[in-house]
Every structure is written in structure tokens, then in C-alpha cells.
Design goal:
Elements: E1 4-8, E2 29-30, E3 33-34, H1 35-45, E4 50-55, H2 60-65, H3 70-76, H4 86-94, E5 96-101, H5 108-119, E6 124-127, E7 131-134, H6 141-152, E8 155-161, E9 171-179, E10 182-190, E11 201-209, H7 212-218, H8 231-239, E12 243-247, E13 251-254, H9 258-272
Parallel strand pairs: 1-4, 1-6, 4-5, 8-12
Antiparallel strand pairs: 2-3, 6-11, 7-13, 8-11, 9-10, 9-11, 10-12
Bound molecules: uridine 5'-triphosphate.
Uridine 5'-triphosphate binds next to α5.
Keywords: Nucleotidyltransferase, Transferase
InterPro entries: GalU_uridylyltTrfase_bac/arc, NTP_transferase_dom, Nucleotide-diphossugar_trans
Enzyme class: transferase
Length: 274
């Protein structure tokens, strides 16, 4: 039912300069796999095999990564290194990839609007690949959310409790608890000061969105620095009772920050690679 997954991947990744001067943040590896490949695997596990990526200048390596590399594959064919490419080969075989470029980096909302041409008029998943989510031995976070979508047929955002002094980095929600891990969203504030935060439940980089989000983002006024966020559009959906917040099962690492990236590397090395 949910076939498409959008990956906004056009951001500058300034927190990782100089590494991100000429390399996309999404290509930074956690151990030996780029962040975006973890995200695509998670989408695939949720049944979304149409991968729609919003890229920008200097992001060509994203497209190359999800393509064959004949010379390299020929070179290592028949050697014990061949199996190092088995995961990415399997991803390439199972997915279709389409790309569009965001010409000006005017924020996540603007990146989502840029992706509309790839998504069309259907509900879709969205992954911010710099948030790495791992649920050892269980379904991935997007698969958990796709399951909920079947029941509620509305937008769903993944949320996590964060310390009070970190709420200013996130969109923060509050609402009515439907069960222990599910909240019908009534209020949402983008990057609030801790005194103004409606709770400590922060939206992380996993979403299921219904396509009316595009028109709603269109109507959103640019905020700080001319950036267009998606919080206002989500809030408009929430006012109609159409946004659920889900406290997911699993670990999430903010790999857009250096501390999160190191934590993710250690966690994945210990749990996935040894
Ligand atoms: P971030 O807020 O992490 O921004 O974007 P950033 O530019 O990637 O990183 P910093 O803060 O400068 O270090 C969240 C997500 O939205 C995408 C990013 O690629 C990331 O996946 N994004 C952001 C876009 O695609 N376009 C934009 O204009 C902004």
C-alpha cells in the first residue's frame, strides 16, 4: 500500500565540515555502510521499494552508490571480497531509484515540496537518513509505522523522549494518549525554548505523510533564515485530528551530530558487525 519513500538529502551538513565540503553527509559510513543505505534498507523492510531521493549540488555519489560499478565488480569477482557488495547489490536489485535536485537549500519543507514530483498524489514514507534507527531482532521503525498506517490512514511521526535541554533542536508534540506508545497530536512547536515546549516528545526523522501535506507546505510562510519547515503543515493536519505520534521500538542515533555519529558507530560495530 505504501510503496514510495522520500529521502530529503540535499542539506549542507555543516556540522560535519570539513568532511561534508565535497561529500554528502548521507554517504558518511557507519562502520562500512553509508547512512543512506541503512535508511533504504529500512524502507525496503517496510515494503517501500520506490526510493525517491532529493539531492543537491555535490551529491552525485548518492546516485553512483545505488548503481552498478562494472569495473570494480569485475575486479573483485571470484575473490573473497565479493560478498562485501552483497547487501548493496540486493538493495539495488529490489528497489527502483529516482532523483530530483533541490536547487536552493531552503529547509526540510522545501525539500519535501521538491520531492512532490517524484511522489505524486499518494501517501508515502519519509526517512531523514542522518537519523539512524536500529531495532535489533525486530521490525525497523518505518515498518512499525507502516503497520500503524494501515489502521489509522493518517500522517504518523516517530517521536522520542529527549532531555529538557535538548527540546530546542526538534519539533515537539503533545496530545492525547490513545495507548502507551501512540498519541493523537494536538499541539506541535518547532524548536521551542524549554519553557515553551509542550512536552519532551521530539519528532525524529521517520514519517508517514498523506499527500495533502504538499498543499499545506505550499501555504507555509518561510521562517528563520528563509527556511520552510514542515511543522506548520503537520500542525494543520493535526488540527483535523490527522496526525499520530508513535513512540517507536528501537534505538535512534542523531548521526547529524558528531556525538551521535560516534555512538552509532560503536553500537553498530558491537551489534551488527562482530
Ligand atoms: P538538517 O537540519 O540536519 O540540516 O536537515 P543539514 O543541512 O543536513 O545539516 P547541518 O544542520 O547543516 O549540519 C535535516 C534533513 O533535511 C534535509 C537534510 O539533508 C537532512 O536529511 N534537508 C535539509 C534538505 O534536503 N534540504 C534542505 O534545504 C535542508
Amino acid at each position: 500500500m505504501l510503496k514510495k519513500c522520500l529521502f530529503p538529502a540535499a542539506g549542507y551538513g555543516t556540522r560535519f565540515l570539513p568532511a561534508t565540503k565535497s561529500m554528502p553527509k548521507e554517504m558518511m559510513p557507519i562502520v562500512s555502510k553509508p547512512l543512506i543505505e541503512y535508511g533504504v534498507e529500512e524502507a525496503l523492510q517496510a515494503g517501500m521499494s520506490d526510493i525517491c531521493i532529493v539531492t543537491g549540488r555535490g551529491k552525485r555519489s548518492l546516485e553512483d552508490h545505488f548503481d552498478v560499478n562494472y569495473e570494480l565488480e569485475h575486479q573483485i569477482s571470484g575473490t573473497d571480497k565479493e560478498n562485501l557488495l552483497s547487501d548493496i547489490r540486493s538493495v539495488i536489485d529490489q528497489c527502483s531509484f529516482s532523483y530530483t535536485r533541490q536547487r536552493e537549500m531552503k529547509g526540510l519543507g522545501h525539500a519535501v515540496l521538491t520531492g512532490q514530483t517524484l511522489i505524486g498524489d499518494q501517501p508515502f514514507g519519509m526517512v531523514l537518513a542522518d537519523d539512524l534507527c536500529i531495532n535489533l531482532g525486530g521490525p525497523g521503525v518505518l515498518a512499525q509505522m507502516a503497520q500503524l498506517y494501515k489502521q489509522f490512514r493518517c500522517s504518523i511521526v516517530a517521536v522520542q523522549e529527549v532531555p529538557e535541554d535538548e527540546v530546542h533542536k526538534y519539533g515537539v508534540i503533545s496530545g492525547q494518549y490513545i495507548s502507551e506508545d501512540l498519541i493523537r497530536v494536538e499541539n506541535m512547536v518547532e524548536k521551542p525554548a524549554k519553557e515553551d515546549a509542550p512536552s519532551n516528545l521530539a519528532i525524529i526523522g521517520r514519517y508517514i505523510l498523506t499527500p495533502d501535506i504538499f498543499d499545506l507546505i505550499h501555504d507555509t510562510q518561510p521562517g528563520k533564515g528563509g527556511e520552510i519547515q514542515i511543522t506548520d503543515a503537520l500542525m494543520a493536519q493535526a488540527q483535523r485530528g490527522c496526525v499520530m505520534a508513535y513512540k517507536f521500538k528501537g534505538e535512534r542515533f542523531d548521526c547529524g551530530s558528531i556525538e551521535g555519529f560516534i555512538e552509532a558507530t560503536n553500537y553498530c560495530y558491537d551489534n551488527l558487525y562482530t
